[in-house]
Design brief:
binds adenine; 10 strands; Rossmann fold
Length: 225
């Protein structure tokens, strides 16, 4: 069973690339895909770039080229849920593109795409094995083409869309996976609180948040049959 790990930034992807044994690299459509084994399991690692369009085109390219059995979008996020702060991790139950808005023609606000329950439970079990429960949440992840750095927007994403964290790719990856019937999971460690402090917090906590995701992904593959 092969997994695609898709990260937005090099800083999120490079640790996974360097963990691969028997690694081979291939560039497709300008994207560098690294194939190899992680804890003995076939894994493909790619950095898609920031934002929904980059995430969507990369996910679709990967699906057509490699036919992965499962896709995990992994990286950092802004915490918006109550008590979801740096050093916490959120695993998606589903995603919502909060900037997808057809309300003017009578549709629901936002676009929800599911996360796969079995895959997400596997990620959750792996996260439980490396993190205390108080630092771990399972809930909705909000995606939009904006780095959120104001508490009013963060509060709206929490209160109106019911999300625990906000980022810029998960909803696009999940939507593309759903279109092909491929199980998708979203794993995010909190780098900032999507507020006025984010400009300072994001660079400060990025590396430690990425390290949390790496520990969880390793535990996930170690536990995989
Ligand atoms: N990724 C990490 N922090 C974020 C934020 N505040 N907004 C959007 N994406 C993020």
């Amino acid at each position: 069973m092969s997994h695609l790990l898709i990260c937005a930034m090099d800083s999120e992807a490079q640790g996974f690339r360097s963990m691969l044994s028997q690694r081979t690299d291939e560039t497709v459509g300008g994207l560098l895909f690294s194939k190899g084994l992680l804890c003995g399991h076939p894994v493909i690692v790619v950095r898609c770039g920031v934002g929904k369009v980059n995430a969507a085109l990369c996910t679709q390219t990967a699906i057509l080229r490699y036919s992965p059995d499962a896709v995990i979008n992994v990286g950092v996020a802004g915490g918006v849920g109550n008590g979801i702060v740096t050093h916490h991790v959120v695993i998606g139950t589903d995603t919502i593109q909060y900037d997808f808005d057809l309300t003017a023609i009578g549709e629901e606000d936002g676009l929800v795409s599911p996360c796969d329950e079995v895959l997400s439970q596997g990620l959750l079990a792996a996260a439980r094995s490396v993190l205390p429960d108080q630092r771990l949440s399972y809930g909705r992840i909000a995606t939009g083409d904006r780095f959120v750095g104001d508490s009013l927007t963060a509060a709206r994403i929490r209160d109106h869309y019911g999300a625990l964290a906000c980022e810029m790719e998960g909803g696009a990856v999940a939507q593309v996976c759903a279109a092909s019937g491929i199980p998708c999971g979203v794993l995010r460690a909190i780098s900032d609180n999507a507020n006025e402090q984010s400009e300072v917090d994001f660079p400060e906590f990025l590396a430690s948040a990425v390290a949390e995701t790496e520990k969880i992904i390793v535990a996930y593959f170690e536990g995989l049959l």
